[in-house]
Design a protein that fits this description.
The chain has about 375 residues and is an alpha/beta fold. The protein has two domains: about 130 residues, Aspartate Aminotransferase, domain 1 (Alpha-Beta Complex), CATH 3.90.1150.10; about 240 residues, Type I PLP-dependent aspartate aminotransferase-like (Major domain) (Aspartate Aminotransferase, domain 2, 3-Layer(aba) Sandwich), CATH 3.40.640. About 40% of the residues lie in helices and about 15% in strands. It has a seven-stranded mixed sheet with strand order 2-8-7-6-5-3-4, with helices on both faces. Strands 9-10-12 form a three-stranded antiparallel sheet. Strand 5, helix 6 and strand 6 form a beta-alpha-beta unit. Helix 2 runs parallel beside helix 7 and helix 3 packs parallel to helix 4. It is globular. The structure holds pyridoxal-5'-phosphate. The site of pyridoxal-5'-phosphate (PLP) has 14 residues, from helix 3.
Length: about 375
């Protein structure tokens, strides 16, 4: 590897922990190791800090504290919400709707309900920009539909789904609940929980700790708890709570929201630079749409090289990117989103995802482009 600092462009996968979160984590861990359910003062102290965190998060998200359950991350939240709602409303119907481009924790939850429990699932298609059609959603709704789950920001290409318009259609045409996977949206693009019935969030995507998430379920929603065996989290999720993580979530979210504008500005600049440079290379197509897209994600394909060759090349030069959703990186070889968008074989085989953060610099973006061009030359893919 050349003697240069590595460049991390994989912030969609995970982000570094914010120094202030890290500081609180070590201070809290030293002092507050008691079980938050314990009936002594040490337990009460930590339980009260968890409740304060829940209240702060609720205020920041403009929801009620009672609708928040702390989880181990968004994979758990997605599983618990989707299966919990499906099972609790089984007498009303067994039809569910989602999109063909969700994160694997959503898609696999629906697949399991289909194959092991006899549910019927409609997977909405997407257009060339990775966006669902509102007409298709409207036509898919039935009297026996109990849940619709649609992600806010696609984690592979950054497309923003029209979740507010989806909510209106669902409410006007059915009695189904509406769940939104907010993982790549929260702290990065505007969000609004007022029109959703349930939502999932994850701390490590916004400079929080790993193994920490939120499951947001509004009061009126009928849901079955999947993890039973304890009084914790008002009976919604049994098991000794990771109280420190739950306390840190409030600080993580507060910091992400307070730094929202400055982060967005820097990320937009880097995205625009990368997009322009990538568009000027003959062998490359940019897969992330131009509009209604998160600037934190830019996905492109090199039509003459495979993702594997590109990943290895970047890695050998100390630049870290992804080929697709990291959760699929060991099982599938092409991105499910790009496949659903109907991209050519060459585009599917040569895709890369750059996860930008405000901590990335213009110099890093320039080095990324320089290394990419050098790679195209050294692997025999001549430039224009
Ligand atoms: C859109 C989306 N949903 C859910 C998840 C899962 O989150 P976690 O890592 O907290 O389980 C991810 C993680 O990549 C994601 O991008």
């Amino acid at each position: 590897m050349p003697n240069l600092n590595p460049i991390y462009f994989d912030h969609v996968s995970s982000t570094p922990v914010h120094p202030e979160v890290l500081k609180s984590q070590s201070e809290l861990s030293l002092l507050h190791y008691a079980n938050s359910e314990a009936l002594h003062d040490a337990g009460h102290r930590i339980a009260s800090m968890v409740e304060k965190s829940r209240e702060s998060i609720a205020a920041l998200l403009k929801i009620k504290p009672e609708s928040i359950t702390f989880t181990s991350g968004a994979t758990e939240s997605n599983n618990a919400i989707i299966k919990g709602i499906a099972f609790a409303n089984i007498t009303k119907g067994k039809h569910l709707i989602t999109t063909s481009v969700e994160h694997s924790s959503v898609l696999e939850s629906f697949k399991q309900l289909e194959t092991s429990f006899g549910f019927e699932v409609t997977y909405l298609s997407v257009d060339k920009e990775g966006r669902i059609s509102l007409d298709e959603l409207k036509n898919a709704l039935r009297t026996d539909t109990t849940l619709v789950s649609i992600m806010h920001v696609n984690n592979e290409i950054g497309t923003i789904m029209p979740v507010k318009a989806c909510s209106k259609i669902i409410k006007e045409n059915s009695t189904a609940y509406f769940h939104v996977d907010e993982v790549q949206a929260i702290g990065k693009i505007p969000f609004d929980f007022s029109f959703v019935d349930a939502a999932s969030c994850s701390a490590h995507k916004i400079n929080g700790v790993k193994g920490s998430g939120l499951m947001i379920v509004k009061e009126k929603v009928k849901i079955l708890s999947l993890i039973t065996g304890g009084q914790q989290e008002n009976g919604h999720r049994g098991g000794t709570a990771n109280a420190i993580n739950n306390i840190l979530f409030a600080k993580t979210l507060r910091l992400a929201l307070s730094e929202y504008d400055s982060h967005l500005k820097q990320v937009q600049l880097l995205n625009a630079y990368l997009r322009d440079e990538l568009k000027a290379i003959k062998e490359i197509i940019v897969n992330s749409p131009e509009h209604d897209v998160s600037p934190y994600i830019i996905n492109f394909s090199v039509l003459t090289l495979s993702s594997e060759v590109l990943l290895n090349w970047f890695n050998s030069q100390g630049i870290y990117v992804s080929a697709q959703s990291t959760c699929n990186s060991k099982t599938k070889h092409v991105s499910i989103t790009l496949q659903a968008m109907g991209l050519s074989e060459a585009a599917l085989n040569g895709s890369l995802r750059v996860g930008i953060a405000a901590s990335n610099t213009q110099e890093e973006a320039e080095r990324f482009i320089k290394v990419l061009k050098e790679g195209l030359v050294s692997y025999g893919s001549p430039l224009r």
